Amino acid sequence: MLEAQSYEVAIGITYEYIYVKSSNVDQISKATFLFLHGFPSSFHCWRHQIEYFSKQGYGCLAPNMMGYGKTYSPLDKDEYKTKTMVEHLIALLDHLGLDKVVVVGHDWGVRPASRFVLYYPERTLGLVLISVGYRPPAKLDLDQALVISKKAIGYEMLGYWKFFDSDDAATIMENNADSFIDLAFTSEPIQWKTDLAPLGKIREWIENGKKANQASYMTEDDYKTFRQYIVVGMQPKLNWYKSAITNVDWNDEMSLDPTIKRPTLYIGGTKDYICLIQAFATQKQYITDLKVIELEACHWIMEEKPDDVNQVINEWIKGIL
C-alpha cells in the first residue's frame, strides 16, 4: 500500500490520506478520483481502484474520513456535519493543487460525496455512488423508517442502527471485534437479512461471540488491516450514525437545491440486503444524468468484484470527460 500522508485542513484538524498524482499523457493531465470510504472501513478499501486507475494515469486521492486512522476523530457526534467534512476535503484539494475531481463514495462515503457535488459543483467532474444511492436532503425519523421497511420487505432494514446508537455499542464491538468482522464480511450475504438488519439481532450476535465464514475476496492481511481500525476506537466511527439519527445536517441542508447537475454513476449490489437497489429508485428524479449498473455482489462491491467495478467506472468516465 502507498505511504500515507497528513495535512491540517483546519486549525487542529488533520486528515490522513494517500495520493497518487495524475500523469500527463500527450500533454493532457488525466482526471483525479477522490475516493471516500464508508463504515467501518478505511482508505484501504480502495486499494484495487487506486492500483487500476493510477496505472492508467489517473490521479487517486483517498483520505481516511473523520473517525478513522490518524484523521481527526472527535467523540462529539455534533462535529460530524457533512458540510464541515466537505470543507475539509476542499482544503485538501487546494493543498494538493487539484481544481476538479471525480468524487467516488461507498456506504457512508456517499453522504459527503453527494453533498460535495451539491455544495461545490464547480469542483466536480462527476459522481460515482457505490452500494448506497443518492438521498436528497431530508429529516430522518429512524423509528418511522424501521416500521416502513418492516412492512415493505419483512424486516427492519436499519434495525442495527439502534444498536450502533446505544451507549455500550462501541465497547462491545471493540471487545468482540472478530465476531463483528465475521458478520460484516460474511461469505453468506443473506446473513445480513437475518442477523444484522433486524432489531436486536446484531447485539445478540456480537455479545454471544457468534462466528461465520469470512468472505474469500479479502486476504488475511486485509482482515488484519480492517481489525486494526476497529480495535483502536469504535465510538468516533459510530458517530456517523448518531449524527444522522439526530439530523445534525438539517440546518445546513434544508435550503439546498437537491438536484445533482453532474454526470452520476450508481453501482448497486443485488446481494446487498441492507442497501437495497430498489430503495434508491427515486434518485433519478434528482439527477440530471444518471447511469445505473447492477452487479451480482454484496455490499462490499469494489472489494468483491474489483475488476467489474473498475471496468464500469472506466467506461463511464471515458464517456463523460
Automatic annotation (TrEMBL):
<dbReference type="InterPro" id="IPR029058">
    <property type="entry name" value="AB_hydrolase_fold"/>
</dbReference>
<comment type="similarity">
    <text>Belongs to the AB hydrolase superfamily. Epoxide hydrolase family.</text>
</comment>
<keyword id="KW-0378">Hydrolase</keyword>
<feature type="domain" description="AB hydrolase-1">
    <location>
        <begin position="32"/>
        <end position="306"/>
    </location>
</feature>
<dbReference type="Pfam" id="PF00561">
    <property type="entry name" value="Abhydrolase_1"/>
</dbReference>
<dbReference type="InterPro" id="IPR000639">
    <property type="entry name" value="Epox_hydrolase-like"/>
</dbReference>
<dbReference type="GO" id="GO:0004301">
    <property type="term" value="F:epoxide hydrolase activity"/>
</dbReference>
<protein>
    <recommendedName>
        <fullName>AB hydrolase-1 domain-containing protein</fullName>
    </recommendedName>
</protein>
<dbReference type="InterPro" id="IPR000073">
    <property type="entry name" value="AB_hydrolase_1"/>
</dbReference>
